[in-house]
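(Deposited chain)
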Amino acid sequence: MSGEYDESVAAWARIAGIGRAHADDDIWAFGAQGHGRTLIRMGRVREGTAVLDELFVAIGSGALSPMMAGWVCCSCLEACREGFDLPRAIEWTRSANRWADEQGDLETYTGVCLLNRSRIRRMLGSWDDALQDADRACVQLSEGRIHFFLGAAHYQRGEILRLRGDHGGAEDGYRTASQHGHDPQPGMALLRLAQGKHLAAGAALRRALDETADPCRRAELLPARAEVALVEADAGAAAAACAELEELAESFGSRLLRAEALVLRGRIALAAADPRTALEPLRTAARLWNDLESPLAGARTRVHLAAACAALGDAEGAEMELTSAREVFEAIGAQDDLAGLRTDGHARSPLSEREIEVVRKVATGLSNRAVATQLHISEKTVASHLSHIFTKLEVPNRAAVTAYYYEELALDFRTFRVAALGPRPSWADIGYVTRRGMPVG
């Protein structure tokens, strides 16, 4: 835990060796799990997971006592989290569930075990079960003295509630986690982003990244950092976060991190007004999320694909991507994501019909003078309309107004008729931003 990995791995290997020498499988397993986890922390992920794979074979064969087998299951699942190895975590969780069912009345899933199972269930979209596990973990861990894991359980609870759109419950979870010594980032920052408070989100994530060099921790924070950078139209920061995440994905051999990096790469291309380049990384990411059985991440990737398709004039393709995403959001109860898919055109827009006309013209790349000419009004009137539009939408510039148009007006979920809205826009001056966690081309 203090980062002295060379000494740690040697000590764990010695413990495992003692177990081997005395034919004591429990002692061997205790040493092996520590050995494997330390190798993962050192970045020697493949070596570490090979050791842990051997442990699961031992559990399945009945070589370990029930208490040690249960403890090793939990430790291995924690190792999967640290190594961002979602496929192995899913496989091991299912194996552990089968093993636990065979133990009869033995209380196998306690404390940290429940916490890790909750994390897997959250990734799989089983949020009711994940929340139940997190609640049970909070109760059981509160009876012990290891407050770090209690804080992690409350953080996990906050994550599930945030994804379900319960902002108040999520904030309570993050604050309780912080009280028990667990950094509430990146969850709290993503909550602030969903609330429209990107400045607070950015400051918190910069602080968290500045104070850690640990690759596991940085890999947790970087996707959220890039997300906020895209909202702030800081292409350099988003690209830097993405590049570091790509390096970590290669180092860990993690398909999960690779999928996250690919999504960011696609979104950065959209931000650079290059939707054609965005398609390949987004398509690859969507396939990876499907393989990883991660429905929420896959559906969100489809929303970004819809933005790219719409930008390229493929209204039908964009509609299909949005339809698929919406079905997933509804199935798992992702309320904030659903709120980002508008189903009623601009009926709820705060803008007047004339202001919508101005926005539509601005979105095609026209200057104030050209807008005035086409609408038969003065250039001063156009400037006045834009001033009122900035105020109503709470946006700072024309690029953000254009982004609003392509989210709220052009991408009407029911009709989705891009061609009927006038000529295709010039993308040269369009910034790619995110509102309520949803993309805007």
